[in-house]
Amino acid sequence: MSPLLAGLTWLLVFQSAGEALVRLAGVPIPGPVAGMALLTVALLVRGGAPAAMSVAADGLARHLSLLFVPAGVGVMLHAARLASEWLPIVVALGVSTVLAIAATALTFQWLVARQRGSVVDEAQ
Amino acid sequence: MSGAAQPFFELWVYLAATPLAGLALTLVMYAAGWWCYARSGMHPLANPVLIAVALIVSLLLATGTAYQTYFDGAQFVHFLLGPAVVGLAVPLVREWGSVRRLALPIAGALAVGSLVALSSVVGLAALLGASPATILSLAPKSVTTPIAMGVAEKLGGLPALAAVFAVTTGVLGAAIGKYVLDACRVRDWRARGFALGLAAHGIGTARAFQVNADAGAYAGLAFGLHGLLAAILMPLGYWLWTGLAS
């Protein structure tokens, strides 16, 4: 079996396992997210991803944005709502996206610097 | 419709009714979007999703083709979001050593970022007078499309509208992320990637992977964690909120 096909098969197997798990447990988590968690645990136990899986996963990750095109085209269904509420939508989406990026990056950077600072203190 | 154009019109009607047309259109227009993106030197504003969506919507409107007809074919591409989300485990495990060392920054940035993303969009939309259905569909805008649709449905928003807001946010974050991060003077690739993945989910993650491998891995991590957190906490939080309010 080609690495790409083998890798894709494994991803679909873990997605199915994730779907089955959330159904059986009755939790409101999307199946693929549960599948990702299961695969993470499996790969950590195994000590890394097999080459075939890396080929498929990296291939999908590199063209992740293609997969959002069909949902994005759905914008044509909501033209009326978007036309009547464009101001709150545009302002809320724009400002919130800027704030979320800035807050996340600055928190991450601040906590890394703090952690590094405390490691240096302990070394002295 | 008459004369010489008639056979072509009939051909289009025939092709548009098969899944082939929607699928081929998605890939061809994405290829066109990618070509523009590559030609611009991967400029963040020349986002391939934005270009592809604009081209496809124009074509569908010009030919009077319904979205559902298009989606019958395009759903095969949409479906691959599932295995792609599962596959994010691979870069995550590859980076596991540094992820463990940075557990505190990751948890802190996830908590602060997801709260800011949610509260600012809901607060601003409510303040500017958006309707309740729009506000509830905006709430999961920074979470990846399939999860945003599921969350919006649980909150009483409109899943298809939530998908559009999520894609718009992803395109926006991928386009302006660089400028926001430069203005904040954040140079660490891991922090930059994590912020893009958290605020702009899969589209931000794709952009991060194109710029830097470390940024991509941390974007994928943020994208997965935020999706997981939102899927669990947003319906629960809304349930508590409405319970307390009534």
Can you describe what's shown?
The complex is a heterodimer of chains A (124) and B (246). With 124 residues, chain A is mainly α. Chain A has two domains: 1-62, no CATH class; 75-124. In chain A, 81% of the residues lie in helices and 0% in strands. Chain A has six helices and no strands. Chain A is extended, with a radius of gyration of 21 Å. Chain B is mainly α and 246 residues long. Chain B folds into two domains: 1-80, no CATH class; 87-246, no CATH class. In chain B, 83% of the residues lie in helices and 0% in strands. Chain B contains 13 helices and no strands. Chain B has helices at 6-16, 19-39, 48-63, 67-79, 81-87, 89-94, 96-101, 103-127, 132-138, 145-155, 159-183, 189-211, 213-245. In chain B, α12 crosses α13 (213-245). Chain B is globular. The termini of chain B are far apart. The chains are: A mainly alpha (124), B mainly alpha (246). At the A-B interface, α1, α2, α3, α4 and α6 of A face α2, α3, α4, α5 and α6 of B.
Topology, element by element:
The complex is a heterodimer of chains A (124) and B (246).
Chain A lengths: L2 H23 L5 H16 L4 H12 L6 H5 L5 H6 L1 H38 L1
Chain B lengths: L5 H11 L2 H21 L8 H16 L3 H13 L1 H7 L1 H6 L1 H6 L1 H25 L4 H7 L6 H11 L3 H25 L5 H23 L1 H33 L1
Helix pairs in contact in B: 2-3, 2-4, 8-9, 8-12, 9-11, 10-11, 10-13, 11-12, 12-13
Terminal Cα span of chain B: 59 Å
Overall, the morphology of chain A is extended
Number of domains of chain B: 2
Number of helical elements of chain B? 13
Overall structural class of chain A, as computed from helix and strand content, comes to mainly alpha
Oligomer designation: heterodimer
Following the backbone from N to C, one meets helices and strands of chain A in this order, namely HHHHHH
Report a brief summary of the structure.
Chain A is an all-alpha fold.
List keywords for this structure.
heterodimer; A: 124 residues; mainly alpha; 2 domains; 6 helices; 81% helix; extended; B: 246 residues; 13 helices; 83% helix; globular
